[in-house]
Amino acid sequence: MLELSDQILVAKVKSGDYQAFESLVNRYESKVYHLALRMLRNPQDAEDALQETFLQVYRGLPGFEGRSAFSTWLFRLATNTCLMKIRHRATEPPKLLPLEDYLPRQEHGEVPQMVDWTDRPEEALLSKESREKMMEALEKLPPEYRAVFILRDMEGFSNAETGESLGISVAAVKSRLHRARLALRGMLSEYFERRGEGEPRVQESGLEA
After folding, report:
1. What percent of the chain has pLDDT over 90?
2. What is the predicted pLDDT for the residue at 27?
3. Structural domain tally of the chain?
4. Which of 60, 100, 121, 132 is surrounded by the most beta carbons within 10 Å?
């Protein structure tokens, strides 16, 4: 059976076809849920974000003009919903903080050398323990850094798609992504060094493009 495009389904929803809306939900609910779970780290919060996102979609579709892809608009709504939930948590930082606040420091305040774990074998990065460590570190980042890293490096969005989803420029995406990667590397460097998998490359922080 031929699968209808998002554009056709959106047009059908606008004409009052509720089954078309259900088709859009079925197509994207898993992706939206996993994005929310990565952002919020709580299954119930992720489920709430999923429902709130599709409620916004249903209410907003009559005014959706199609200037961006439906999926881009959907993920923008989902990401913004998650960011709003994060900002309402008392333990979350309220705004972007300097990268240096997330890097380990030595006794006199210098940023130390860090193990570059980005060249680790994929199976090591995908182990249960490594994934958990990654998510714990990711949760410590300010929401705006976290969102860029998840969309770009975990969901596989392009810089342009990430920027559209977050309403920021490509330059801002690149800047936040670079800072997020450096911060995560700082937080995870000691962990991967302890694992002792191979001979890690050690470099001065901030030198990698």
Report:
1. 50
2. 96
3. 2
4. 100
SS3 percent helix, strand, coil of the chain, rounded to 5, is 65, 5, 30
| Predicted TM-score of the model (pTM) | 0.72
- Give the separation between CA 112 and CA 171, rounded to whole angstroms: 28
Q: How far is CA 173 from CA 72, 107, 140, 147, 204, in A?
A: 15, 33, 19, 10, 23
Residue 1 lies in a domain: no
Answer whether 81's CB lies under 8 Å from 25's CB.
Answer: no
> Residues 6 or more apart from 100 whose CB is under 8 A from it?
111
Residue 27 lies in a domain: yes
Based on the domain organization, do 105 and 145 belong to the same domain? yes
Amino acid at 79: T
